[in-house]
Design goal:
- The protein is of the alpha/beta class and 314 residues long.
- It has 2 domains: 148 residues, Ribonuclease H-like superfamily/Ribonuclease H (Nucleotidyltransferase, domain 5, 2-Layer Sandwich), CATH 3.30.420.10; 79 residues, no CATH class.
- The protein is built from 16 helices and 7 strands.
- Strands 4-3-2-5-6 form a 5-stranded mixed sheet, sandwiched between helices. A two-stranded antiparallel ribbon has the order 1-7.
- A hairpin with a 2-residue loop joins strand 2 and strand 3.
- The chain is globular, with a radius of gyration of 22 Å.
Amino acid sequence: MKASGRFKRISHQYILSQLVDAGRKLPKLTILNIALAIQWSGRFALDGVFGKLGGQSFVILICSDLVSLDVVLAEIYEDENYVSWKNFCVKLKGILKDQYDLQFFVSDGKKGLHQALKEEFQAIPRQLCKAHKLRRIFQIIPRIHGDAIDRLFSRVATNAILAKDQKEFRVYANLLKEFQKSAFHSRLSEPHQNKLKKIIGVLRYQQAQLHTRYNHPDLIGNDQTTNSHEGSINGFLKERMKLLRGFKKPEHLAPLVKLLIYYYRFHTFTSSNYPERNSMRPIELNNMARPDILRNVVVGGKTWSWLKNLLSGS
């Protein structure tokens, strides 16, 4: 956009139209996944990314692989609810029907999502994302700007969520409950009393799913991947949703989101929390039966070589 304004030879509208056209010509994510014969890790994260285009809200529901951080499935819906998650999970079940080792799903606490997972993947454990739980605690109690009481409650709740086993969890959870019973509680201000009540509610909400990692230590244990989408597609898309501001037509949404997701799959990690991923693309971190196809797609060595090769049918 800056270049078009500088040289005054290429209109903004032309660039926008080229981006939309490229997104439309790209194959569906699932087609590329099938061609590469990707075998996913069996550990998956589910979440939604919200945005607006032309004044209309939308949500991108995403399933990503927790080992490679690559995208298994992404679909656009008007809202995040049981109906949309049910539709998404039905499609996901079709994609994973040949997956030999389904281990667990990580997600936030949306009831509609958990209901859909329970119906479509009855035997697969569901683990609540610890990062989502922590984020909710920090919304209730500011971790940095709070006073000493805020920091005390925040620290105890954080220790409960990150506890190594259920016994340790109960120590911290029971301590918060004791704060409600003792004379200490009567000396708290009303705002502090309300905060204490809320964070106890957060710890109780869907506690069984938060503790799945304790009940299935052979699958999940204390694996860091129980933080959904950490350093993954969610943050990547949120940072780039502002790129959609120049687009107004609803029909632009699907091709642009597809282009952004492809861009994510072929970008290289440079500052990952997992150093072994740096200089690698998410799509490269999967197990696949046809790596030769991927080599043909990325040949050229430039940042956007993959796009040229995919559009040319290479």
